[in-house]
Amino acid sequence: MKRPYPPTLATGWTGNPPLVLELLRYAATASSSDATYRIAFRRLAEVDERQFQWVLKAGLGPLLYSATDEVDQVPAARRDILRSADLTAQVRHGNFVDAANEIIDACRDIGVRVTLLKGISTSDQYYPAPHLRPMGDIDILVCAEAQESVESEIVRRGFTRVPDDEADGDSYHGVPLFHPHRGVWVEVHNALFPRQDSLRRNSVFSPPHLDDHSLASTFQGRPVHRFSAELQLLYIASFWIRDLSRQGIYASYLPPLFDAVYLLKNLGRPLDWEGLLGSLDNDMAMASLYIMLVHLSRCGLHEFPLTVMTHLGENQETVGDLELNIIHFMLSNYLIQGRPFTRLFQSWHVLDNLLTPGSAGAKLLLLPWNIVFPPRVKDRYSLRYQLERVHRLVRGQRS
Fold it and tell me: Does residue 141 contact residue 190 with C-beta atoms inside 8 Å?
């Protein structure tokens, strides 16, 4: 039987906690206006440049600016960087809002229901100020039958398609559209994951279930739909783990952790765990939620009911104690602390291997083979691919 909180491997944290963890704890506090929860200005004077730059790469400079106590006392160079990041984020978020309003109006005019996804939804719904949530684009969900008409209407309003770019047969969204004056990208989704993705199995992310758990809401006074908090949390965790296991550990994958923290903090009601677990019939989604909740718990950011953690630990077959410990170790050292990963291989090689079906022992035995020949790489057995890997490795070591 899996334990809900297996033993934790050492994270290597000594002295002050990592700057990202301090930001997460600030976000998770019940009263962030209280100075006791804020980050002392002296901390920004002493934190090493690697951690400071990691926060900036994640787009969290505005949040750090907001979280720092007596920010005017921060050394001028770093204070100016944070202030500039905050002002830039406010302007950029204004462009996102204007673009989102146009998209919502476009859907309304052709009679299509639109559901807001990811940052454009969570920033407006859970963050203390929307511009504190970094965004790369606007993601919306419409029914598959309406996708083409929605994209055409958006293009008619000033967005442009990427030349010579076409969605493949497994795509779950159309070709990204770009607004040249606002500098904003938009993706019109007809589903949450690609057709062949394991997360599309069973019913939890099926169109009927998404419809049943999409709630009427507003954005800037305009009618929209958003996922229920329970479905939102599951989607955040599932997409986060999917990205990490396919792309690797990058600073840009920090915001989903803040999304989860702010959702749990500012929901204003207890989560319906019974309803969420009762509808959770996808093993990978269950494992993804389990990984995120355990990580948040181990970081001291939120306590979850023991019954919930036990259910998630015992009712999914993807991650056991060993896999969970290794993933938590990697997240703590390379995502939270921003330490560089080895150049010999990429972090997703390990994460993808740990999240495949099978026993922990088999996964560890197969890990060297899967590092050399990554299963998700189409040409992994070709000499050309392997020579290119060696070339990148040598070039990286020299730079």
Answer: yes
Structure confidence at residue 10 (pLDDT): 46
Tokens 């002002």 -> residue: 87
- Residue 230: is it exposed, middle or buried by C-beta count within 10 angstroms (0-12/13-18/19+)? buried
- 232's CB contacts (< 8 A; 6+ apart) are 121, 122, 226, 263
- pLDDT value for 389: 76
Report the distance separating Cα 111 and Cα 108, nearest Å.
5
Residue 110: name the closest of 148, 138, 167 by CA. 148
pLDDT for residue 34: 59
Fill in the DSSP letter of residue 143.
Answer: -
The Cα-based distances of 162 to 58, 103, 180 in angstroms read 26, 18, 11
Residue 93 to residue 260: CA distance in whole angstroms: 20
pLDDT in tens, 139-194: 999 999 999 999 999 999 999 987 766 665 568 998 999 999 999 999 999 999 99
Which structural domains are found in the chain, ordered by start? 19-357 (3.30.460.40)
- Point out the residues of the chain with pLDDT beneath 50: 1-4, 6-10, 397-399
List the beta bridge partners of residue 116.
Answer: 140
Q: Would you say how long the chain is, in residues?
A: 399
What is the phi/psi pair of residue 203, to 5°? Answer: -115, -10
User: C-alpha 141: how far from its chain's center?
Assistant: 17
